[in-house]
Amino acid sequence: MRISTNQIFTGNVNNLSRANAELFKTQQQISTGKKILQPSDDPLASAQIIKLKQELARTEQFQSNIEVTDRRLGLQEIALGQIFNDTVRLKELTIQAGSPALTDNDRQALVAEVREIVNQLQGQMNSRDTQGEYLFSGFKGNTQAYRYDQATERYIFQGDSGQRSIQVGPNNIITATDSAVQVFESVQPVNVPVLDNADGLVSNLYVTNFAEFEQSTEGVAFNISLNDAGLLTITSTPAGQPVFSDDQPPIDLTNVGINVEAGDTVKFAGVRFDVQSLPAAGNTFSADLSSRPERSSILNTALKLEQGLSQISTGTEAGKAALGELLARTLKEIEATSELNLRARGSIGARMNALESQQRVNEDFELFTRTALSSFEDLDYNEAISRFTLQQTVLEAAYSSFNRISNLSLFNFIQ
After folding, report:
1. Separation CA 188–CA 206 (nearest Å)
2. In this model, does residue 192 exceed pLDDT 80?
3. Residue 106 contacts by C-beta under 8 Å, 6 or more apart in sequence?
4. pLDDT at 407 > cutoff 70
5. Considering the entire predicted model, what is its pTM?
6. Do 207 and 214 meet the contact criterion of CB atoms below 8 Å apart?
7. Is 151 helix (H, G, I), strand (E, B) or coil?
8. Residue extents of the structural domains in the chain
9. Average pLDDT of 233-253?
10. How large is the angle between the packed helices 317-377 and 298-311, nearest 10 degrees?
11. Looking at domain 56-187+298-364, does it have CATH number 1.10.287.110?
């Protein structure tokens, strides 16, 4: 077979180019520390690398979400802790204000401290996170949670009941914020006014389950009836489903009723009341319940205490009664507030523990993923440097041999 000079030159140039390209690729691998520089180097491994990098990016986002959530929950816990301390002090002042040894002037001295507690509560309940959003405004993070309304002389909640949730793991979503509706606004009045209770059937009507009662009275009124035989029945208006008691098992108070005596307690629809007296023979007592309790908060509880202590004079029996009612109501609402506060802080603590646990899971998963990624992507330097040295030697030999072959020409001998 005849081999032309052009073939020799072309073949050697191609071999030198290929050797140069291989040496350059190895040099790039050594400089980057990666054995796969482009997908064509290993398509299957490249697909795994892309998938593993996506998993790492997602896990890193989960870890970032955990940091943000933990920071928000921590700020909420601090605010609720301070509010709890203010509530404890408010309770002490309320009890102190009820002392018969105090005069009206003595109680005025307590007003200043109660007013300071109101200011502190307002500040804590309007707390913001590190991004400047209000912690307890629900989804309305840029709206101040509470503002004072001059017309009603009370603090108005301006947020909503939304609770923000954030994903912190592949199958784990944590509630990152609590609305004031859950932690502050659920403080219910101690009692609910009864409409049309002229016969004195109902006394001491209290809310036992605020959420249930609020739902039950949505567009519904209850009529309570008691005959001279002691049979008490309750019907709803407009007529709907029968009304059942909160007993176990429940009693159908509409179609069956319950036999009671004076002083007995009846529970239904999230409220309880006492039967004050039985009607005389041939008579029937009745009462209507249709008003829904208004949501309140510890902020308004403190404000009403401040206003009451400032305005009520105990120089008369009516004033003493008004003060006693104010203090009793305040203590009841403080108890409800404290219970809500402890429940909210317990929930926050549970979520923070869940975040810590999920963070450890994410760290383990991230370590496992990086190890798998390294097996596909990272370069074995010992093997690469040995290969680089071999390729460099081969290239130098190719240059040397090509130089000698290029001089094998008849014209060189003629010279």
Report:
1. 10
2. no
3. none
4. no
5. 0.66
6. no
7. coil
8. 56-187+298-364, 202-289
9. 84
10. 160
11. no
